[in-house]
Design goal:
The structure is a homodimer. By secondary structure, chain A is mostly helical. Chain A has one domain. Chain A has four helices and two strands. A two-stranded antiparallel sheet of chain A has the order 1-2. In chain A, helix 2 crosses helix 4. The first copy, chain A, is globular, with a radius of gyration of 14 Å. Chains A and B meet through helix 2 and strand 2 of A and helix 2 and strand 2 of B. Chains A, B: It comes from Metabacillus halosaccharovorans. Chains A, B: InterPro entries: ComFB. Chains A, B: This is Late competence development ComFB family protein.
């Protein structure tokens, strides 16, 4: 089993900030699109079990690291908001 | 749901070539370590459903793309084989 620890970190960050990202649509399709796009722009941190993912998460307690993730998330939120691909906008 | 399409591609490649990578140990811990290390060196390709992962897989039918993945896999296999962290070697 391998897990990219960044998946949960980015998901938690999106959950926390989705109310402040000025999203045109907050359906699950758009949120998944934002998440996938953000993860494609983020260096992966694969670990072989869930306990090891905690060590990666601990690194991102550092404010500067977390801010750089949030910047990526905001950029991707803008891209998806400008071009939503979900059923609500087709 | 988001999936890194590279996970399955790299896993399939490891399954196919593990007999030819001169591994000192082929236990599941060592194979996972090789997989995690290779994925950390590979640009992620996140998609939002399993059908879309097929399109990414199709790109890697291209021989040059697949060879560059295999080179990464072989490098990581050497690192793990030189320093196995599994119970068999502790």
């Amino acid at each position: 089993m391998v897990i990219n620890a960044m998946e949960q970190i980015m998901k938690d960050l999106l959950d926390e900030y989705k109310g402040r990202l000025q999203l045109n649509c907050t359906c699950s399709t758009c949120l998944d699109d934002i998440l996938a796009l953000s993860l494609n722009k983020t260096t992966p941190r694969y670990v072989t079990n869930i306990e090891k993912a905690m060590y990666i998460k601990a690194e991102f307690i550092d404010k500067q690291e977390m801010t750089s993730l949030l910047v990526k998330l905001a950029e991707c939120a803008k891209i998806v908001s400008d071009h939503p691909m979900c059923d609500n906008y087709q």
